[in-house]
Amino acid sequence: MIAEFLSYGFVQRGLAAGSLVAASCALLGVFLVLKRLSLIGDGMSHVCLTGVAAALLLSANPVYVSVPVVAAASLGIMKITQKFKIYGDAAIGIVSAAGLSVGLLITALAGGFNTDLLGYLFGSILTVSKDEAVLCGLLLAAVLAGLFFFYRDLTSACFDEPFARTRGIAVQAVNTALVIITSVAVVLAFKVVGIFLISALLIIPPVSALLISRTFKQVLWLAACFGVASVWVGVYLSFVFNIPSGATIILVNLCVLALSYGWSKMGGLKNAR
């Protein structure tokens, strides 16, 4: 069964793209969770609807149209937070509502939902093209390069922004780069799990890793491993039982989260003894 599953070219592309995106989202999600911006994925996913609806209306590639739209929205969240002195979650809510409203309006003008749009809403990992798989690879390469060259800047800006500024770290530039690359990850992830479930890829693997890890680097690599494993297991289960792959991937992530929570509690009991 497994050999047959892996023999299809579209399955191989889907698994490759899904693994690359899941690893990228998990690594980025660690910083977003610690900076209390974990809901940014949810907000950006709603903005994705605007980009996808506009692309389908214009008969353009949804990825290329959505990236600048979502990137602009992510920068808008930062500007709203800074200019109006409100919390990040409130800024996310404002931009999210705007993105969803505009997306629904464009959808209505385009004549309503169609098969293509529904595929983006709920995920269609097995329809990933070679070009999209390459983009997913470039995304992960950019994330890993950022971690390698700017690890200290990222961790300092994540844990203690005032201290990072005293060390001469350009915190504003770090935050801007983080939200922009997250917006790219969000756009590429809507083919994997669908627009409505993107935030789960950014939140659940990092939280699972945080529950059982002892060092920050361990959190990063465990989160990435959890994300990739959930894609492989989720896609295989969806293939075997003929169920939606996006929802199955997220359910597998939730199972990993439950197991991680149980493991952390067992460790806590042992330490108490």
Give the helices and strands, then pairings:
Blueprint: H1 2-6, H2 9-34, H3 40-58, H4 62-83, H5 88-109, H6 115-122, H7 130-159, H8 161-166, H9 171-189, H10 198-212, H11 216-241, H12 245-272
Helix pairs in contact: 2-7, 2-9, 2-10, 2-11, 3-4, 3-5, 3-6, 3-9, 3-10, 4-5, 4-9, 7-9, 10-11, 10-12, 11-12
Q: Would you give an account of this structure?
A:
The chain is mainly α. Helix content is 83%, strand content 0%. It has 12 helices and no strands. It has helices spanning 2-6, 9-34, 40-58, 62-83, 88-109, 115-122, 130-159, 161-166, 171-189, 198-212, 216-241, 245-272. Helix 3 packs parallel to helix 5 (88-109), helix 4 packs antiparallel against helix 5 (88-109) and helix 7 packs antiparallel against helix 9. The longest helix is centred in the middle third of the chain and has 30 residues, at 130-159. The radius of gyration is 19 Å and the shape is globular. The N and C termini lie far apart (46 Å).
**What fraction strand?**
under 5%
Q: N- to C-terminal separation?
A: 46 Å
Structural class: mainly alpha
Helix share of residues? over 70%
Task: Summarize the model shown.
This protein is mostly helical and 273 residues long. It has twelve helices and no strands.
Question: Which terms would index this structure?
Answer:
273 residues, mainly alpha
